[in-house]
Design goal:
Layout lengths: L11 H4 L9 E7 L5 H12 L4 E7 L4 E6 L6 H10 L4 E3 L5 H39 L4 H4 L1 H13 L3 H12 L5 H21 L10 H24 L1 H8 L4 E5 L26 E5 L8 E4 L8 E6 L2 E4 L1 H4 L5 E3 L4 E2 L4 E2 L4 E7 L5 H14 L5 H33 L5 E4 L41 E4 L2 H15 L2 H21 L2 E3 L2 H9 L2 E5 H5 L5 E7 L4 H11 L4 H13 L2 H23 L5 H12 L7 E7 L3 E6 L2 E6 L1 H6 L6 H6 L4 E7 L2 E9 L6 H10 L3 E5 L4 H11 L6 E2 L4 H13 L4 E5 L5 H6 L2 E5 L4 H6 L2 E3 L5 H35 L4 H4 L5 H20 L8
């Protein structure tokens, strides 16, 4: 049986403090044109400059910007236009169909990848032709002709390299240089220097036209691999969005429909269940309360309740559970899940953005745009990175030209050994593709010697200007701002995608970082460690003040006055058998009163009492003016009298005494006391059972080095039973704690230096979930708990608490690995490219080799993030 929670306006401020100011408005943009972390920082800077913007967060991996702004203060379209005008084509997601917007984004990215593949194909052809000229030598005079290599370099800049060069120059002009700026400067400088060497041979420079060819080829290869990896990383979210159905079949449920099992209805059946009158409408236009037909193999269009038919539903995309779930009339179904076996008619209960799958998509998207605090250092560096690299490149040129070549003149003496096996620097001169006296004079004569087929080493001197220029270009090209920008978002992208596939919704990178720091996990008891399906074990009317109690019950219960008084008199004065029958009557009346009061509450205790009353066929008494005191009890007006139902503390606040002997008789059970007019009418005992995976989850968390505690508003006696079953220490159990006390208990642990996660499911747990470093809520819990928590467990399984912490730790470790690699790569790569090893070892990175390393850096970061999936295979 389902119970609809009621919101009590007078009680709401005690559960969730209502702010007078309206909450900030969130606007999301799809942002194109970002090439590296510097671009992402530039977009953030432009967004923050707009009036009304409170904060902005840009995710390079998914190309999304999320802006928090004052309500009504920002025109989303104007802001998108501003970004577009500044070189970052942007589209606002406000008011659009989510599926259509995502489909457009996916199609745009596919076109970008296709364009990159086409450019890469051209670049690879140019690299092959350039390589053949070195390999074949005199066997193919045309391929070894210096003008042929000039043509290859020119084509490389005009065809595959043109978008990179144009974007790099534009970014530099807008005072927001990026990775393409560095590559463009390197490629154009190498091409220009080679042209000078070709046209003015008297300078004694060598030509290296194949440097821009290989440089652009390696960069395009790296970008293509990176895009493919990023696409794989985002596949889980795209699959989740694709899960949302496009259409729904609207039917008139007033038509006669046969109530037959799905197995008895073949697809060609003429039953109204299979063949009603219907119209197809977009799923996002379905309204709450409308009736929808879903046939086998179709997706459930919206969240709803099965009204007719029986089937099994595949809910694996939402919960990660592969086994289909049986659904029959009265059961709930979620949008996007797949109807496997039978035709059903359902009634819509939540539509559009309110459906479970839409909320999951929103949570995952939000998670992928929220940064981990550890990324702040990378963001700070990225903001100045390109400027710093350009400065280091200029200083490298100046040092080697004015000082380095004079301090170590031997670096100008090199041996061209046919470029060696590695192609990365051969002797002090690096990769010299043509000796300075190769015979390609001003007249443009064809090179008379094979480029690589030298019989003996040729000793030559190269220009100090050319060496300094090569080193400066290598510095420009080797630096990789992309690795810094992709380190955190790609790991979060993969981690949140794995979580979504397994029904673990983690709200962002900041949550992952806090998960990594956890040392204490605090569980709520009722509905979290226990099933929440309480069963009634005792009905105990109180007869210490017998006549008053009976009189109060008699007044409340609507019926024949004489019979009520007779029942009370029989209990007081009658014989044993008569007393037993009368006591049973009073037990039922006590339950009936309690059910009337609990009808206004949303809690497992209320559900259990209402279910018992329903099973006994007791009619619900009319009640009004419901009031809930979280963690204590409820009250309502029943037949004009205020009735209270709750724990002993609640009774004490109402001036109703509860005898110590009575409390002792309720040991190990949850006791609900019922009182009215200052008179204790009776007590109802309930028992709950632990979830099947509770003990295993607690033990696993301990093995992970975490302290496990239990926090409950239940009595110490009831908590002690669960404590023994779970094997918890007495010091790790806090019982009889009110909701506001729960938050204070968590704050007390935090004051002791603990990093605390709270696992809960009810409205009573919301303050503690908000106070905790990480709040973890079961999806079956109340909306307040789900909204307050940072991690939501869709499967409602406690072992998912273990898995979510495991996933959080693993993801954060990937973030640290990526950031370490990105910083280490740039820290080591830039000095090597600047020639720090050249005087002592003769090792020199050519621009082409530097470009290869640059591309490898970005690809390695994304690939390392994708390796996260290896530890979480289904």
């Amino acid at each position: 049986m389902q119970f609809v929670p009621k919101t009590i306006s007078e009680n709401q401020p005690e559960i969730i403090p209502i702010k007078e100011s309206p909450p900030p408005e969130l606007v999301t943009f799809d942002v194109g044109g970002m090439k590296c972390a510097g671009c992402a920082k530039a977009v953030e800077r432009q967004l923050m400059q707009h009036s009304g913007v409170i904060s902005a967060c840009v995710n390079l991996a998914v190309e999304v910007a999320t802006v928090e702004c004052q309500p009504g203060a920002v025109d989303a379209e104007a802001l998108a236009k501003k970004l577009t005008d500044n070189g970052f084509p942007s589209v606002s997601r406000l008011g659009g169909n989510q599926q259509e917007a995502e489909a457009a984004t996916v199609e745009r990215r596919r076109q970008e990848i296709r364009q990159q593949i086409n450019q890469l194909s051209i670049a690879l052809i140019l690299i092959i032709l350039s390589g053949l000229g070195h390999i074949l030598g005199t066997k193919a005079p045309i391929l070894s002709n210096i003008w042929f290599h000039w043509g290859l370099a020119t084509l490389a800049l005009l065809l595959p390299g043109r978008p990179i060069i144009v974007d790099g120059c534009r970014s530099l002009w807008r005072n927001a240089p990026n990775m393409n700026t560095l590559v463009a400067l390197g490629a154009v400088t190498a091409y220009t220097a080679s042209n000078a060497a070709l046209l003015f041979p008297q300078m004694g420079w060598e030509c290296f036209f194949d440097e821009p060819v290989m440089l652009l080829g390696f960069i395009l290869l790296g970008k293509t691999l990176e895009q493919q990896a990023r696409r794989r990383a985002a596949s889980a979210l795209q699959a989740l969005i694709a899960l949302q159905p496009a259409t729904a079949r609207l039917v008139d449920f007033k038509l006669p429909i046969l109530n037959l099992d799905s197995e008895e209805l073949p697809p060609n059946s003429t039953s109204q269940l299979y063949n009603p009158q219907y119209i197809e409408i977009p799923a996002d236009r379905v309204r709450v309360g409308e009736w929808l037909q879903v046939l086998p193999g179709e997706k459930i269009p919206v969240d709803g309740e099965v009204c007719e038919g029986k089937t099994t539903v595949d809910e694996s995309m939402l919960t990660g559970e592969s086994m289909p779930v049986l659904k029959q009339p009265g059961d709930t179904v979620a949008a996007g899940t797949i109807n496997k076996s039978g035709a059903i008619v359902m009634r819509a209960t939540r539509t559009g953005e309110e459906t479970t799958v839409a909320q999951m998509v929103a949570l995952v998207q939000a998670a992928q745009t929220r940064k981990a605090p550890i990324q702040n250092l990378a963001d700070t560096v990225a903001g100045y990175f390109v400027y710093g690299v350009m400065t280091i490149s200029a200083l490298t040129f100046l040092f080697w030209y004015f000082a380095g070549t004079h301090i170590w003149p031997s670096v100008l003496l090199g041996q061209d050994m046919g470029h060696g096996a590695s192609g990365m620097g051969h002797g002090a001169s690096g990769i010299g593709h043509w000796a300075s006296g190769m015979g390609h004079g001003a007249s443009g004569m064809v090179n008379q010697l094979p480029i690589t087929n030298y019989q003996l080493p040729i000793i030559h001197y190269q220009s100090s200007v050319l060496l300094s220029l090569k080193l400066a270009i290598a510095v420009l090209v080797v630096a990789c701002p992309c690795a810094l920008g992709l380190a955190t978002p790609t790991a979060i992208l993969v981690g949140s995608g794995i979580g979504a596939e397994r029904g673990l919704l983690i709200r962002g990178g900041d949550v992952l970082e806090r998960v990594h720091q956890l040392d204490t996990v605090v569980f709520d008891k009722t509905g979290t460690l226990t099933t929440g399906n309480l069963t009634l074990t005792d009905y105990l009317p109180i007869f210490d003040n017998r006549q008053d109690a009976c009189s109060t019950i008699s007044t409340i219960i609507d019926g024949v006055s004489g019979n009520r008084q007779d029942a009370c008199s029989t209990i007081i004065d009658g014989d044993s058998d008569s007393r037993q029958d009368a006591r049973s009557t009073i037990d039922s009346k006590l339950l009936q009163i309690a059910a009337a009061v609990e009808r206004g509450a949303c809690h497992p205790i209320a559900a259990a009492i209402l279910l018992e009353a329903q099973q006994q066929g007791l009619p619900l008494l009319p009640a009004e003016d419901f009031y809930t005191e979280p963690g204590l009890g409820v009250s309502a007006l029943v037949e004009g009298r205020r009735v209270f139902a709750g724990n002993a503390a609640w009774m004490g606040e109402q001036g109703v005494a509860v005898a110590a002997e009575l409390l002792e008789s309720c040991q190990g059970k949850t006791a609900v006391f019922v009182a009215s007019g200052g008179v204790l009418l009776g007590v109802i005992g309930l028992k709950d059972t632990l979830r099947s995976d509770a003990k295993a989850a607690v033990e696993r968390l301990r093995e992970m080095g975490l302290r496990v505690m239990m926090l409950t508003g239940d009595t110490e006696e009831a908590a002690a039973v669960a404590q023994q079953q779970l094997g918890l220490a007495a010091a790790d159990v806090l019982a009889g704690v009110r909701p506001d006390g729960k938050a204070r208990a968590i704050a007390s642990l935090q004051a002791q230096g603990c990093k605390v996660a709270v696992v809960g499911d009810g409205i009573n747990d919301a303050p503690a979930l908000a106070q905790a470093d990480v709040g973890i809520s079961l999806h079956c819990g109340t909306d307040v708990a789900v909204e307050t928590a940072q991690i939501v467990l869709m499967r409602n399984a406690l072992m998912d608490v273990v898995e979510s912490i495991d996933l959080g730790r693993a993801t954060f470790n990937k973030i640290r690995q990526n950031l370490f690699w990105a910083f280490a790569y740039n820290t080591l790569g830039i000095p090597v490219a600047a020639g720090i090893l050249l005087p002592a070892t003769g090792i020199l990175l050519t621009p082409a080799a530097a470009g290869a390393f640059m591309a490898f850096s970005s690809v390695s970061v994304v690939t390392n993030s994708l390796l996260l999936r290896r530890g979480f295979r289904a």
